[in-house]
Amino acid sequence: MPKRDDIKKVLVIGSGPIIIGQAAEFDYAGTQACRALREEGIEVVLINSNPATIMTDGDMADHVYIEPLTVPVVKQLIEKEKPDALLPTMGGQNGLNIAMALADEGFLEKHHVKTIGTDTDTIKMAEDRLEFKNLMGRIGEPVAKSVVVNYVEDAIAFAKEIGYPVVVRPAYTLGGTGGGIAHNEQELHEICSNGLRLSRVTECLIEQSIAGWKEVEYEVMRDGAGNCITVCNMENMDPVGVHTGDSIVVAPSQTLSDKDYQMLRSSALNIITALNIKGGCNVQFALNPDSFEYCVIEVNPRVSRSSALASKATGYPIAKLATKIALGYTLDEIVNAVTGKTYASYEPTLDYIVCKIPKWPFDKFYDASRKLGTQMKATGEVMAICNNFEGAFMKALRSLEQDSYYLYNEEIAQLSADELRKDLRKIDDKRAFRIAEALRKGVSIREIHAITKIDVWFIDKIKHLVEIEDRLKSEELTPDLLKLAKHCEFPDRVIASLTGKTADEVYYLRKGLKITAAFKTVDTCAAEFDAETPYFYSVYGGEHEIQPDQSKKKVIVFGSGPIRIGQGIEFDYCCVHSVWALKEAGYETIIVNNNPETASTDFDIADRLYFEPLTAEDVQSIIELEKPDGAIVQFGGQTAIKLSQDLMKMGVPILGTSADSVDAAEDRERFDEILEKCQIDRPKGQNVFTAEEALKAASNLGYPVLVRPSYVLGGAGMEIALNDGDLKRFIDHITSQFNIEDHPILIDKYLAGKECEVDAICDDEGILIPGIMEHVERAGVHSGDSISIYPPQKISQEMKERIVEYSKRLAKALKVKGLMNIQFIVYENEVYVIEVNPRSSRTIPYISKVTGIPLVDVATNVIIGKSIKEQGYDYGLAPEKKTVAVKMPVFSFEKITGAEIALGPEMKSTGEVLGISEDVEEAMYKAFMGTGLDLPKHKKVICTVKDSAKEEFLPIAKEYHDFGYDLYATQGTYDFLQSHGIPARLVNRINDKENTIFDLILTETVDLVIDIPTRNNNLKDGFLIRRFAVEAGVPIYTSLDTARALIHALEAKHDNKISLVDITKL
Amino acid sequence: MKARLILEDGHVFEGESFGAVHDVISEFVFNTAMTGYVEVLTDPSYAGQSVVMTYPLIGNYGVPLDDQEAAHPFVEAFVVSELSRLGSNFRMNMSLNDYMIENNIPGIQGVDTRAITRILRKEGCMNGMITTKDYKVSEVIDQIKAFKIQGVVEKCSCLEPYHVGQGDYEVALYDFGAKRNIARELAKRGCHVTVLPADTPAQYVIDHNFDGIMLSNGPGDPSECTEIIDQLKILASSSIPIFAICLGHQLLALAHGFETEKMVYGHHGSNHPVKDLTTGRVYISTQNHNYVIKEDTIDPKQAKVWFKNVNDKTIEGLEYLNENIKSIQFHPEACGGPHDAEYLFDNFIEMMGEHKNA
After folding, report:
1. Among chain B residues, CA nearest to A347
2. Cβ–Cβ < 8 Å for A153, A185
3. CA distances from A115 to A11, A63, A173 (A)
4. DSSP character at residue A239
C-alpha cells in the first residue's frame, strides 16, 4: 500500500516533562517520528512543554511550540495551525490522553483533523478497562478475574468474593500511579480511595493477584493491511508484582520454551489484530510458571518505555516504523535500515542477551521507602548487551554508577543466613544483592526461589557469579579463571580486590594473555545478513568483527548514562548536538552510552555507537580499538567528566576544557586561589574532614552554613545547617554515604540572596553569554529545583555587567574551552560566585532555544578550533530577547512514598517545563500550567508558615486574599494573619480530632497548600501534611518565592486564550 | 573435555565437549531461532547436518520430551555458545546435556557461534567435523571435504504405515522425514491421517480412496529422490488434492519439470517473512531448507507463484493451475516458530472438502 496522499500537515504531541514513568524514551520516539514524517515531505507541527528535548529543537519540525500540554492549549494550536492529522501515539500517556479528550469532544472531527496510526477507537478499547476486558472475552484471551469500580465499597465486595490479595490499578494514570496490592480490607480501602482520586475518570480495576507469575512482554507491530510482527519479547527477572519499569528485564525471554513463547506471541498478535492497531503496541502477560495458564495484564497501544528498550535491544526502530505505518505504508514496503537488505516485516533475532536494570532515586530520597510494587519509582534505566547473562547483568550493574561493581553490599554482608532468609521477602532495589549474599551464606537456589518466586534459572546465574568470586578469592588466578571472570564481565578492579592484586596488575596480566574485549555488531538478524549498522557491544572470548575507519579525524563523545535526578535528558541533548556539530565539521563521530531511552543511543545519530558501561575500563577497550584523535567529556554530565583523569592516562587528548581545569574548579583550595587572583568574592567557607573541624568552621563563619561533600552531582548530600545539632547530623550522613578521605566536606557561609546563573561559551579570545538566568527561589533551593527566568527581571544593569565581567575572568583563569556554567548570588549589591562547572549544564537546551544561539554547536566548534568570532557571533553578553522564558521544575513526589518534598539544596525535581511569552507574567502562568496546574478552581488555600517567614508571607497572603482566595491557616499562621488584618480560617493540625488539614484536603476543594517548613526540624507533622497533599494530588509549594510567583501569574491570567509562540520564528 | 570444530575451509574453533563424545563429520548450517532447540534437534530435515545455534544460551528450559518433533534427534551434532548448566521449565524432563548423551549426539559449546555463522553466511554452508581427538587438520580435511549428504530420506521415513487422529477426512501423509506436528495439526482438524513410508507407490494411495495427500518436509537434495518424483507425477494427475510442505514442495516442482538449486546458506530459523501474492499479506514463518525452486524454470502454464520470501524474493509457495495442488516451502506446522501460517492447514481441509463434494 503506498503512502496516503491526503495528509500534508501533521500535529505531533510530545509527552511533556520528565517524570517517573515518562522519561527520555518519548524524546527518542518523538524525534524519530518527526524525522520520519519530514523524510516523507510532511509539514510537522510539534507541541511539547519540555524544553530539554531534541524533539523541540527548531529544526526537528516546521513549527515547534513549547507550550503547556493541556486540552485547551492543543485546541487553540489546532485552530491556529490547522493540521490535517494528529499522530497521538508518540507522546506517552499524556499525549494519548489529550488526543482522546479531543476526539471524545468531537473537536477533531469538527476541525477535520484525522488521527493517523492507531486510531482513537482502538485507544479507547485498549485503555478502558471494561471495554478491554470485554474484547478479551470475545476473542478468548484470558485476563485476571477483575472488576471495574468507581466506589471503594464495590472493590471490597469483589475482594470478599475472590479473596485477597487483590491488585488495584487506577485507569488513565501514568506509570501505575496510585496502584498497589492490597492484602486485606484496610489496605484495599486505602489504596483504592487514593487510586480513584488519581484516576482521570475516577475508575479503578480490582483484580485477582497473580503475584509470583512470570511477567513477559511482547513488543509488536501491525500495519494497515493487517500484517503483524513481533519485534522482541522480554522477560522480567522479577515476577509479577513489581512494575515492569522497576523490574530487571532481559531480552529475549530466557526461561520460556518455544511452546510458551509462541503461545504468548500468537496471543499478542491476536490481540493487536482484534484491536486494529496500526503501529506499535506493547502487550504484557503473566505466565503461570507451573502450567500453560496465562493472562493478559495490559496493552499499551503506543510507543512506550518498553518499545524504546526493544528498539535498542534489537536495532529495530519501532517509533520510526510506527510513523511510516501511520502514513499508510505496509511493513513489507519499508526497508530495514540496519541491514539495508531485509524489510520491516521481519522479526529481529538476537544472538546476544540484553539486560536492563532500573535506576532508582533512593540516593536522593534516602528517607523514602525503597519498596518496589506496582507503582513505578525508577527515574531511568541502563541496558547492557553481552553474549551471556552474567556478563550483561554485570555490565548493567556498573552502568548504574552506584559504586557497585559486583553483587556485593557491605551492609547486607553483615547479615546471617537466617536474617537473609527473612530479608529475602523484601522487594526493593537491593534484592539481587541479598540473593547473592544468601547464596554466599549457603542458602539454596530452591529456597531462594520459594521465597522470591524468581525463576531458578536467574538465581543460578547469580550463583555462578558468586562461585566465580569465590574462586577468585581462593584459587590461583590461572589464565582459564581470568578468562572465565572476564567472560562474565568481572571488571579488573573487582578481580584485583578479590585476588589481592591491583587493577593495573590484572590489566597487564590479561593484556599479556590476550584476554581483551572483542566487539560485535547489533544487526537484527544474528549475522544471517551482512549488516552495516554501526551499533556495537563488547564480549570477552570471541572474534573481533569491527574494522575501525582511520581515514577521517575521529572524536569520541561520552554520554551521560541513566536518567537520574540531577542528570537528566538535557545532557543527552547536549551529546547529540555535539555529535551533529562534529559530523557537520567533517569528523567521524563515536558515541558511548548505556541508556536505552535516549536519542543519543539511536544508531543513526553518531557514525558509531558503542552501547557500553561508562567506566574507565570499558571505555579503554573502545579507545584501544578506535584510537580516536580526541575525546569530548563536557557534554555528558558528571558521568563523562569523571572519565577525564583516566582518559588522560590512556593518552587520549581531551578536547576542550582540560581535566586539570575541571579539577581546579572543583578543588576547594585551587578554586579559592583562582577567585583570589580574579578578585571575585564567594561565600566564605572551609574544607573539613571531621565533625570537630566542621563545628569549628561553622562557629568561625557563623550560622547558617551550607554543608556539602565535594565532587557531587545535583547537590547530593547538600544541606543548610542552622545550628551545631544540624551540622553534626549532616556530617554523620555524609560520612556514611561518601568516602571523605578522597573528597572533603565543604562548609560555606549561607547567603540568602538572589541566585543567578549563566551558561557561557569560551574560546581563547573571550566568552559569549547567550543570556543571564535569574532564579525565583532564593539561594538555598537547588538551581535545578528553582524557577528560572530569562532574561532576568530583577537584576540591575550594574550587577549584570559584573556577572559578565566575573564570567570572563573565570573563563580565562580556568582556561575554559567550550561550555561553562556559573552560579552567582547577588546579595546586598554584591556578586558572589557559588559554583563554577566547566561543562554543559541542564539549562543549555532551554537557553539555546530561547536565545537562538545553539550553545552546544558553537561550543563544539570552539573545541575543534573554530573561534566564536569565526562562527559569526560576538563576544560578551548577547542582546536580550523580548521573549521571556520561564523554566519551571516538575517533581514526581507522589510516586516516591516517604520522600520529603520540601525544597532545599539537594535537587529533587525529575523534569522541567518552559513557559514562553513576551509578557513575563504570562510566561510564568504558562509554565505553571505546563507543570499540570489548573488554577484557580475553588479558591481555597491552606497556609502553614514558619515563624521566621511570617512577616514576609504577609503581602503574599494579602494578594491571595485580594484575588478572592479563602485562606485556611494553622494556629500560628492563623493568629498572625488575623492580627495583621487578613481574614483567615483556622484549620487544625493533623493530630486533632476534627477540622484538620487532612479533612480539608480530603474534601478535594483546596487549590493548593503553601507550607513553609522550618528547615531540618524533625517534626513529623509538617512532613505528613506535605506528603498527604502530594499524595492527594493537591499542589504544594514550600518556598515563599514560588507562592508569590504563582499568585502574580494567576492575577495576570485574563481569559482562556494564551499566546502561542512558534520558537522556529523567534 | 576440550572439543574442536574443524570446518572444511580450515577454520578451527576450540570449545568444550558436551552430550555424547564421538567424532562427527557432516554439513554445518546455522539456525537463527531463539527458542525451540528441542524442535530443531528432532527435525528430520536436518539429517546429515549439524546445527550451529546463533542464539547464545541454549538449554535454558531443558528438554520437555513432548517438544520432540520425531522419536529422536536427527541433527548430527549441536554447536552452541553456552549450554545452560541449569534448565528450568515446568515441563522439563531432563537436561539438554543428558538428552544428548542418551541419544548419542555430540555437542560443542564455548565457541564463538557468531563468528562461525559469519563464515557460513559468507562462504555458504560447508562440511565440518566435531571431534575431541587431537587430529592434525591436514589429517582429516580430505575426509571432511569428501562428505556428502546421501540417502537421508529413507533414513528418516517410517518403515510401516501408521495412523494418527480420527475424523471425516482420510489423509495420506507421505513421510519424507515428517515433523510430528503436521499429523497433529491435521488430526486437530478432523483428519484420519495415514502416515506412509516415502517409498509408498502412488497406486496404493489412489486405490485407498484418500481425500487428500500431504507431502511432508524432509532432508537432503530433492533431485536425488528420483523414484519418489516418479510416483508424484502419477499422484499429481490423479485429481486428489495435494498439499506439500518443504521437501514435498520441491519434489512436486521437480515432478512438474521445474528445477531446484542449492542455496548459499539456506533458510533456517523462525523469523522468515513470506508474502502471499494473492492477498498481499505477510506472514512470519519457520523455515529449514537449503534447496529452493529456480524461479525461471517454473512453467507459467502449469503453476503460478503463490508465496515469495520478502527478504530475498525466493519462491516460497506454488499454486498449480490445472491441478488441485498447492505447495509451500516454509513450515505451517511451526514447532518451533510462529503459528502464523497455521491457516494453510484449513486451506487444505477446504481443498479436500471441495473435492469431496464435487
Report:
1. B271
2. no
3. 9, 19, 22
4. P
Per-residue pLDDT tens digits for A952-996: 999 999 999 999 999 999 999 999 999 999 999 999 887 788 888
pLDDT band at residue A374 under the 50/70/90 scheme: confident
Q: Is B123 noted as a catalytic residue in this protein?
A: no
Q: Rounded CA gap, A310 and A219, in Å? A: 7
Contact (CB<8Å) A527/B114 = yes
A457 contact residues in B (CB cutoff 8 A):
60, 84, 86-88
| Ramachandran category for residue A564: left, alpha or beta (phi over 0 → left; psi -120 to 50 → alpha) | beta
Among A221, A259, A538, pick the best mutation site for testing chain B contact (most B Cβ within 10 A): A259
DSSP H or E stretch at residue A385:
strand A380-386
CA distance B167 to B190: 4
CB contact under 8 A, B336 and A529: no
Question: In terms of Cα–Cα distance, which of B298, B287, B293 is closest to B333?
Answer: B287
Q: In this complex, is the C-beta atom of B124 within 8 Å of any C-beta atom belonging to chain A?
A: no
pLDDT surpasses 80 at A1018: no
Closest CA to A536 of A586, A485, A594: A594
Identify the band that residue A444 occupies on the pLDDT scale cut at 50, 70 and 90.
Answer: very high
Active site residue B163: no
Region of poorest pLDDT, from A18-32, A119-133, B139-153, B264-278: A119-133
Burial A335-365 (b: 16+ CB within 10 A, else e): ebbbbebbbbbbbbbbbbbbbbbbbbbbbbb
Residue type, position A171, single letter: A
Calculate how close chain A gets to B46, using CA atoms only, in Å.
Answer: 18
Q: Is residue B273 within 8 angstroms of chain A, CB to CB? A: yes
Is 60 exceeded by the pLDDT of residue A714? no
Question: What is the distance between the alpha carbons of residues B193 and A675, in angstroms, rounded to a whole number?
Answer: 91
Reply yes or no on whether B160 is catalytic: no
Interface of B with A in 299-318 (CB under 8 A): 310-311
Give the tens place of pLDDT for each residue, A653-711: 999 999 999 999 988 789 989 999 999 998 888 888 888 889 999 999 999 898 887 66
Burial of B146 (0-12, 13-18, 19+ CB in 10 A): exposed
How many residue pairs bridge chain A and chain B with CB atoms within 8 Å of each other? 170
Summarised one tens digit per residue, pLDDT across range B30-55 is 999 999 999 999 999 999 999 999 99
What residues in A contact B311, CB-CB < 8 Å?
Answer: 341-343, 346, 529
Please give the grid coordinates belonging to residue B355: 473435492
- Please answer whether residues B49 and B28 qualify as being in contact, where contact means their C-beta atoms are separated by less than 8 angstroms: yes
Q: Is the CB of B114 less than 8 angstroms away from the CB of A525?
A: no
Q: Given pLDDT bands bounded at 50, 70 and 90, which one contains residue B330? A: very high
- How would you class A266 by CB atoms within 10 Å of its CB: exposed for 0-12, middle for 13-18, buried for 19 or more? middle
β-pair type (A588-593, A517-521): unpaired
* B158: closest CA of chain A, how far (Å): 26
Between B35, B82, B88, which is nearest A388 by CB? B82
**pLDDT tens per residue across span A6-44:** 899 999 999 999 999 998 999 999 999 999 999 999 999
Question: What is the C-alpha separation between A159 and A167, in angstroms, rounded?
Answer: 10
What separation in angstroms does the CA of A507 have from each of A413, A491, A495, A502? 28, 10, 10, 9
Residue to mutate among B11, B42, B88, with most A CBs inside 10 A, is B88
Locate the chain B residue with the closest alpha carbon to A269: B340
pLDDT tens digits for range A556-593? 999 999 999 999 999 999 999 999 999 999 999 999 99
Q: Enumerate the residues of chain A whose CB falls inside 8 A of the CB of residue B307.
A: none
